[in-house]
Amino acid sequence: MFTSVVAGLKNGPFKTFTDAFVNFFPRVIEAAKRGMSLQTLETNSWIEGEVDGRKIPLSFYDARDFAYMVGILAGRGELQNPLPNVDPSEVRLAFFTAYTAGGLRRASEEATTLATLT
Q1: What helix, strand, coil percent values describe the chain, rounded to 5?
Q2: 66, exposed or middle or buried, with CB in 10 Å at 0-12, 13-18, 19+?
Q3: 20 to 30 Å CA-CA from 83: which of 9, 71, 74, 75?
Q4: Regarding predicted confidence, which is higher, 117 or 15?
């Protein structure tokens, strides 16, 4: 199960990451238009996933990056129609990678750096 949290306000639960993201992303955009600060975005907006019995937050940036990776978002942040079916194992991996590596982008950068060393 997943929960969408924007500026500290929770919505959900949602059965899939995709459903949570479809709720989350427009709420973030609307809050930003109303003047939500970058600090509020970064500290009080995330998607929380229950993965293997643990509640793990996926920050706005990681949720957005993952949505691009799996085709939920494209271009300049357009939700795709139809939405793709995202493999639950990819979602699980994204949450654990973000949690253990300090973010998906950082994990990707570290993997790229390691690849250049070998």
Answers
A1: 55, 25, 25
A2: buried
A3: 9
A4: 15
